[in-house]
Amino acid sequence: MRWDNLAENRAKTTKSGEAALFAADAVTTRTFDTPEFRGITFHEVRARSIVNRVPGASRMPFEWTVNPYRGCSHACVYCFARKTHSYLDLDTGLGFDSQIVVKVNAPELVRRELAAGRWHGAHIAMGTNVDCYQRAEGRYRLMPGILAALRDHANPFSILTKGTLILRDLELLRQAAEVTEVGVSVSVGFVDPELWRTVEPGTPSPERRLDVVRTLSEHGIGCGVLMAPVIPFLGDRPDQLRATVRAIAAAGATSVTPLVLHLRPGAREWFMEWLGRHHPELVGRYERLYADGAYAPTWYQRRVTRHVHELAAEYGIGPSRRGTPRALPGRGEPQPPPDGAEPTQLTLL
């Protein structure tokens, strides 16, 4: 596997001449014979940097991300981040679901990089690549240290998750929200239990995720819902959209943002293989709908978005409102992270 150039020691190259992503001698591989981790292999690494710049061509509304994990045991068949596993010479199918890279020094790196003079407090997004509250977080507990560092530096941040484990860190989120802007969104694309069991087999149920929204709201932390993905021909019927928006509203979400399924290389192949097994009658329709690339046609996206917005208005879900982060003394415009390191990361959209 290509490990080296994200490890703390100097990067090396593989036999093919490509830079490796972590040094082999910096990796500890572990398996745990417990029910929640059975079949999963963890590769513990000490990363060189953790604050990653989003590529300039991205559609994302932020420039910087923190991702303490690679790979995700949520095993969502549509996950766009599957391609990132190929950079480690790991399989983008079952390997993405079961070979999890853990950046065990993530909390100390975040604190070090936020303290550097070149860092000026830009918004940091988490959960935009793989879920930072996937099952591994229950063992490795990286997020409390990361959140504490962000709180201590009054650095604005946001979290997107399908994981209920975020409630473990409720007090840290509350403390951070007292000094800076904190945004939390939970991903719930549908509430159909059968669809959930087949396309998101490693995630908490949609009902449990909506309980997270409800609990955060009850504790004064506004929580929006990313209604993603809306899956064509499986989760886009008017009655399905209505049921999902109604449940989101009942949970007290501050906003709902629909996002139609997109199929990038890596995810596309895995999803289409799944579709052929479970819904072979839809393969041709998908090939036509996604004939021009990773995204569904604009007309289809607009139709879904308009319908969801109409339902949101009907159920009284208002637009999201961004707060104003509290700036620390002497902070100015965002600058690159320390040591000139600017690793990039794939965008969410």
Description:
This protein is α/β, with parallel strands linked by helices. Helices cover 31% and strands 14% of the residues. It contains 11 helices and 11 strands. The protein has helices at residues 94-98, 106-115, 136-140, 143-152, 170-177, 193-199, 206-218, 238-250, 267-278, 283-289, 298-314, and strands at residues 27-31, 41-45, 51-53, 64-66, 69-70, 99-103, 124-126, 157-161, 182-187, 223-230, 256-260. The strands form 2 sheets. A 7-stranded mixed β-sheet has the order 3-4-7-8-9-10-11. Strands 1-2-6-5 form a 4-stranded mixed β-sheet. α5 links the parallel β8 and β9. α2 (106-115) runs parallel beside α4 (143-152), α4 packs parallel to α5 and α8 crosses α11. It starts with 26 loop residues before the first strand and ends in a 35-residue tail after the last helix. Residues 9-21 and 320-349 have low confidence and may be disordered.
Describe the oligomeric state of these chains in a short phrase: single chain
Q: Rg, please?
A: 20 Å
Classification by helices and strands: alpha/beta
Largest sheet: 7 strands, mixed
Overall 3D geometry? globular
